Amino acid sequence: MSLGLSPDSSTASDIAVARQADHVAFLHRAPFVADSLALGFLPGFREDCGYQTDQYLNLEIPVGMLDNDFRDPDLERFVDRFFEYEPRVGVIGDVDEIDDVDAHVAAAREIQASYPEAELIVVPKSRAVIDAIPENLVLGYSRGYADRLAHDFSDPADWRGRRVHILGGSPPKQLDAIRQLTRPTLTDEPPADIVGVDWNGLHRGAQFGEFWTADGWDDSGRDADHVTVRKTVRHSLARVREFWRAHGIWPETTPQDEGLNVEYEGPSPADLEDAACTECGTNVWRTRRGPYVAEYDTGAICGYCSYECYFSHRHRNNLEEIAGDQSVYLPPA
Fold this sequence. Notes:
By secondary structure, this protein is of the alpha/beta class. It folds into two domains: 2-263, TIM Barrel (Alpha-Beta Barrel); 266-329, CATH 2.30.170. The chain has ten helices and 15 strands. It has helices at 10-19, 32-38, 75-85, 101-114, 127-132, 150-153, 171-182, 202-206, 229-246, 307-316; strands spanning 23-27, 42-46, 59-60, 65-67, 89-95, 119-124, 138-142, 163-167, 193-198, 211-213, 216-218, 263-264, 292-295, 301-304, 328-329. The strands form four sheets. The protein has an eight-stranded parallel beta barrel with strand order 1-2-4-5-6-7-8-9, surrounded by five helices. β4 (65-67), α3 and β5 (89-95) form a beta-alpha-beta unit. α3 (75-85) packs parallel to α4. The protein is elongated and about 80 Å long. InterPro entries: DUF6610. Pfam families: DUF6610. Keywords: Plasmid.
């Protein structure tokens, strides 16, 4: 450890506390965000996207984080969206000029009046804007694919003593930024307080059969018949979680610990639109027990005349239910 610090020094302890995030967010659509919530991530989406759950029967995924549409920003629209979805974390917008700070702060104040516990993030895009943002708002540190990244216009010292959310960038890049913002200094400056991180790049690799590892993308499962994009994203999420745990960034508590859960009601025979068994064509209503029903993450609802037909069709087509066993209706014996 630099500067002669011992592992049990108070300075080292303060830095460890500053580096541990309150949340690690994953912004995407269903079913990927549902899987991320189950793994301990904070789910969310960009205001112009949504979870795209219309294809499912009764699936409600809580909005933990709401990002703004940075390509078409509109503060009034974002405030309306915040009140509609009631997230725990909100990225209000990017601020390029000092003259734009007041409008973003006013939007934050409007939200805070109704949601005082919400973490609201404002993203400075110039050195002068950093100091102009009130200290009770979180600073967004751009590390992803934004037009202007934080290190392009500022030094780590500019962010010290502030609450910071790292926006985008792969985990190693985010970790490098966290270390720069929190490492001990000769002048004993306080570290930045890392509130959260988010990165949504896992799906791009998964589309090509690649999952994320700390050593880079791994395509060892690319040609396996049983590997799907969803399974690959889920595997990558688990790897990301382990990465953050190993470096002391993963939060002490998860959104589920705090009551954030998926609400889902599984299918029933009444949801079937076809009497024919999806596997063998038998009339499912003329069997002794009645239909077996499954809702898959493709949005398809399939009826079967027997468990054997359900099992065979599911595995031959490498299907996965939207919410595990909850997505399967078994008729009474």
